[in-house]
Amino acid sequence: MQGTVDGFSYGLVTPLVAYLMACLGGALGLRCTTRSMLVSNSWRPGWLALGSAAIGSGIWTMHFVAMMGFKVQQAPIHYDRPITFASLGVAIVMVGIGIFIVGYKGAKGTALMTGGAITGLGIASMHYLGMAGMRFNGKLEYNTVTVGFSVVIAVAAATAALWAAGQVRGFLWSVGASLVMGLAVTGMHYTGMAALSVHLHGTAAPTTGDSAASLLAPMMIGPLAFLLLAGVVVMFDPLMVMGKPVWTPAENKPGVPARELLAHSPGRRPVLRSRRHSTHPRPRTPQNR
Asked: In whole angstroms, what separates CA 211 from the centre of its chain?
């Protein structure tokens, strides 16, 4: 028997809140990715790990906020807790791999394509693994073409978001990147849901697992608390909003030969070598004899 699916049982509330959650996680994670490009290698893994966890938590939270509005009219839906939280781990790990590639190799060329593809596949894997954790008196079937299209959306938008984050051009670029990342997650989610059809079993059978309401508390307390903590770290870091590196490149001043610019430590102004202390004496001319 074909089940009647309603993905918007609460109207536009769940899609809008889900999109905001995806944008929040994307904003924090991509900003951490940008920040990692402005520091020394010793600090870079920490910022990239924080960004991976922020994006993974954001897209996982987005998914299950959106699933609050998903109903099958003829059958109650429950969730398998281990599979549900395993999807969170998959999201963080796969997104982390993509972010680390971009963070170390740069947001261009092969590194960007590889990192964006892995990040997009991580988003898609989280979604379909989370859907596999659903328990009800029936089974799920997917349209293969639509599923493939949803994966393409996730990969393309994730690649664009990582490219924008890698430009290191200030706060507005990160905001735009987070909006694109939120679009990647929500667009992939609802495209994947459009590929879904539900077939119910003829006989009533008890379902196992937890209801969506019983998963709401750990979902809000855990990942959202982490996103709040990550937001505090991002907000109080002095370089996060400005998007400027911790070093200042040497200036190319007209009229000063490049060889007279001495090597200088990060954060210090270039020191000019005085001609009076030069080891090469000035040639004698009739005017200065």
From this structure: 28
> The dihedral of CA 118, 119, 122, 123: what is its sign?
negative
Residues 38-44 have a mean pLDDT of: 79
Q: What is the pLDDT of residues 50-62, one digit of tens each?
A: 989 999 999 998 9
d(CA 266, CA 92): 33
